[in-house]
UniProtKB/TrEMBL annotation:
It comes from Salarias fasciatus (Jewelled blenny). Belongs to the carnitine/choline acetyltransferase family. Residues 741-762 are annotated as: Disordered. It catalyses: 4,8-dimethylnonanoyl-CoA + (R)-carnitine = O-4,8-dimethylnonanoyl-(R)-carnitine + CoA. PANTHER family: CARNITINE O-ACYLTRANSFERASE (PTHR22589), CARNITINE O-PALMITOYLTRANSFERASE (PTHR22589:SF114). It is found in: Membrane. This is Carnitine O-palmitoyltransferase 1, liver isoform-like. Pathway: Lipid metabolism; fatty acid beta-oxidation. InterPro entries: Carn_acyl_trans (IPR000542), Carn_acyl_trans_N (IPR042572), CAT-like_dom_sf (IPR023213), Cho/carn_acyl_trans (IPR039551), Cho/carn_acyl_trans_2 (IPR042231), CPT_N (IPR032476). Keywords: Acyltransferase, Fatty acid metabolism, Lipid metabolism, Membrane, Transferase, Transmembrane, Transmembrane helix, Transport. It comes from the Eukaryota.
Length: 762
């Protein structure tokens, strides 16, 4: 094969005259340029490490301090108060060094120490400032004097032009809530889900835990919080994700649909409030590329490599290694298109057992771990598997066509979502940090593994990628503009030697994965009657509004019951923060839903909605600022397991099912372009599978001012759930609530009485 020959730097043959050494100048040049690229990246990493290491100061500020101190030496003043002289006395220098030279060296050393002390002080001050979160609890557009002073101080102590990881050393640690506060909030959250007898029993269990075992477990947790950067994240990654033995396809991985943008925001994570920006932890960004989840019999591990200059592409059962660097530079879009076309034109057949090999990553983890150890630990299989796992990311060229199309665009969106979530169960590599899927008709999407990072991280990456795509130029024939280097090597097809026993395991894993995929019921729809613009005109939080909609819709579709509801929030205001749970079903939300469905007056329902909305926003703020319920209880449970003690309270809390799991798809850049005049830039967002076998997974995506997209999942095997019926109830609840909050004065004061359900309930 041509690519194999180009990979050899030199060849030699034995002749009667001796050894004939033949050097390949092209290969040697490629090796040299690859080395140059590698060293350039090392230098850039070192430079960035220095810049972020001294942040919020800058390297140039060191020179300013040195010059300032040296200048004082000529004015016969001593700002060091004798320290420079002390350093000079103990300076281990050669006798040949003059006294003046020793003084200069001592001054430089003192200046450096002073500079480092100033950096440490600024970081400490910034860390204390970033521990202030009262601004989140203030009324919209009403900033207190304390917060105004805080904003000014943050701007003073924050450096200019921060890089992605500049704020990492200044972020505060996640605080450990008091046991009594967590228990109190927990009991409040489950009250609408229990009758009096059940609630009294749970209250007794909680009281016993709080007064006895809870304090002991809390002591260990505080000790960990003092020692570790984050007392939750490592245990969350290990026990919630990596120790799961069921398939990660559907159960853990999530997806995002195509997204087009024309602008890119600054490249560090932040929240915005008037007058300043609040940095978010960027630790999860470190493992976006060159990362894979490796299966194990007891627990999986996340492996990350420092660098990779290629991707792996799957097409029609074959795996190809595609280098994205040539002669020390990144390939141009035109060259990548050219290389992809080479793969599409390749007529070779898959190796025996290769076509459905990816099913191993879609099935149960233990069989995959055993197969990996037995069949992929040596030889050609190990080399090919290493190639996939060490790739920057994975790409699937799918021969299907997806997107909103055909005579039934609604059903086509459902198929699009299911395809991104699980595909054919063997044409994705679910262990990779993320896989990009390109369809025959040009639509695309992403499937992401969950253990290494949460959805906002991948969503930001997806937006950046789409921004760059939108900035590309195309010629009249539809190809990317630019030229192609004629010396580009062919993409290298990976080789496999799959024995019959491994093929049998592939078939078994595929059967498990296929049954799981077939059981997923998905419904995606775009609601365009109104959006957050109209909701905000009703003086309501868009997120709280949608959460009340979901509570109302679930109440109706489930037969007038409530359930434990999970809404994901982030804790990246803290170092190495990930997520926290907002328990959206509250006493206030259930009171509102019962009043609306019970035929109360519009004024009463509006008052109860306001209370429920304010309560939800309060719960969300508490979760974001480290005062949530579930991560604290989870960590207390882990400590109890390490200590070998049982807690009936914790065991029951951790076993409660989340029948309604919800999440808002994060958006960083949608407000930077005109969706009204350019609707082609709209994305449907992304989604995930159901968390409970008898529950729903709901992801919603607020696009611009007038569109809300929903992704609903459940399981066909549960007779009590139906994604399309739930979608219908969500649409109805959206319209009912907006009518309630902005009633027409000409209509009766009880608009809900016109609904058949309301009359039936009476």
């Amino acid at each position: 094969m041509a690519e194999a020959h180009q990979a050899v730097a030199f060849q030699f043959t034995v002749t009667p005259e001796g050894i004939d050494l033949q050097l390949s100048h092209q290969a040697l040049t490629e090796i040299y340029l690859s080395g140059v690229r590698s060293w350039k990246k090392r230098i850039i990493r070192l430079k960035n490490s220095v810049i972020t290491g001294v942040y919020p100061a800058s390297p140039s500020s060191w020179l300013f301090v040195v010059i300032a101190i040296l200048a004082t030496m000529y004015t016969r003043s001593d700002p060091s108060m004798g320290l420079i002289a002390k350093i000079q006395e103990h300076l281990p220098v050669s006798q040949s060094m003059s006294t003046q030279c020793q003084a200069v060296v001592s001054a430089v050393l003192f200046s450096t120490m002073l500079w480092l002390l100033l950096i440490f002080t600024m970081r400490l001050c910034l860390k204390q400032l970033l521990s202030y979160h009262r601004w989140m609890f203030e009324q919209h557009a009403k900033m207190s004097t304390t917060t105004k002073v805080w904003v000014a101080l943050v701007r003073i102590f924050s450096g200019r032009k921060p890089l992605l990881y500049s704020y990492q050393g200044s972020l505060p640690n996640l605080p450990v809530p008091a046991v009594k506060d967590t228990v109190k909030r927990y009991l409040e959250s489950v009250r609408p889900l229990m009758d009096d007898t059940e609630y009294e029993r749970m209250t007794k269990l909680a009281s016993e835990f709080e007064s006895s075992l809870g304090n002991r477990l809390q002591w260990y947790l505080k000790l960990k919080a003092l020692w570790a950067a984050n007392y939750v994240s490592d245990w969350w990654e290990e026990y919630v994700y990596l120790r799961g033995r069921s398939p990660i396809m559907v159960n853990s991985n999530y997806y995002g649909m195509v997204w087009l943008l024309d602008y890119l925001k600054p490249h560090f994570w932040y929240n915005r409030i008037p007058g300043t920006v609040i940095p978010l932890c960027a630790a999860q960004c470190e493992r976006i590329f060159n990362t894979t989840r490796t299966p194990g019999e007891e627990t999986d591990t996340v492996q990350h490599w420092q660098d990779s200059d290629y991707i792996v592409v799957y097409h029609r059962g074959r795996y190809f290694r595609l280098k994205v660097y040539q002669a020390g530079r990144l390939l141009s879009p035109r060259e990548i298109e050219f290389q992809i076309q080479r793969i599409l034109d390749d007529s070779s057949s898959p190796s025996k057992g290769e076509a459905k090999l990816g099913a191993l990553t879609a099935g149960d983890r233990i069989p995959w771990a055993k197969a990996r150890a037995k069949y992929f630990s040596s030889g050609v299989n190990k080399r090919s598997l290493d190639c996939i796992e060490k790739a920057a990311f994975f790409v699937t060229l799918d021969d299907d066509e997806q997107g909103m199309m055909g005579d039934d665009p609604a059903a086509s969106l459902d198929r699009y979502a299911k395809s991104l979530l699980h595909g054919k169960c063997y044409d994705r590599w679910f262990d990779k940090s993320f896989s990009v899927v390109y369809y025959k008709n040009g639509k695309n999407g992403i499937n992401a593994e969950h253990s290494f990072a949460d959805a906002p991280v991948i969503a930001h990456l997806w937006e950046v990628r789409s921004t760059e795509v939108n900035l590309l130029g195309y010629n009249t024939e539809g190809h990317c503009k630019g030229e192609v280097d004629s010396s580009l090597p062919q993409p290298q097809k990976l080789n496999w030697e799959i024995p019959p026993e491994c093929e049998e395991q592939i078939s078994q894993s595929l059967a498990v994965a296929q049954a799981l995929a077939d059981d997923v019921d998905f419904h995606v729809f775009s609601f365009r009657d109104f959006g957050k613009g109209k909701v905000k005109k009703c003086r309501a939080s868009p997120d709280a509004f949608i959460q009340m909609v979901l509570q109302l819709a679930y109440y109706r579709v489930s037969g007038r019951t409530f359930c434990l509801t999970y809404e994901a929030s982030m804790t990246r205001l803290f170092r190495e923060g990930r997520t926290e749970t907002v328990r959206s079903c509250s006493n206030e939300s259930s009171a509102f839903v019962r009043a609306l469905e019970g035929g109360e007056t519009a004024d009463v329902c509006r008052r109860l909605f306001r209370a429920a909305s304010e309560k939800h926003q309060q719960l969300y703020r508490l979760a974001m600022t480290g005062a949530g319920i579930d991560r604290h209880l989870f960590c207390l449970y882990v400590v109890s397991k390490y200590l070998g003690v049982e807690s009936s309270f914790l065991k029951e809390v951790l076993s409660e099912p989340w029948r309604l799991s919800t999440s808002q798809t994060p958006v960083q850049q949608v407000e930077l372009f005109d969706l009204v005049n350019h609707p082609e830039y709209m994305s449907c967002g992304g989604g995930f599978g159901p968390v409970a076998d008898d529950g729903y997974g709901v992801s919603y995506y607020i696009v611009g001012e007038n569109i809300i997209n929903f992704h609903i999942s459940c399981k066909h095997s549960c007779p009590d759930t139906d994604a399309h019926k739930f979608g219908d109830q969500i649409r109805k609840a959206l319209n009912d609530l907006i009518q309630l909050l902005s009633p027409n004065p000409k209509e009766p004061s009880k608009p809900e009485e016109s609904r058949p359900e309301a009359k039936k309930d009476k």
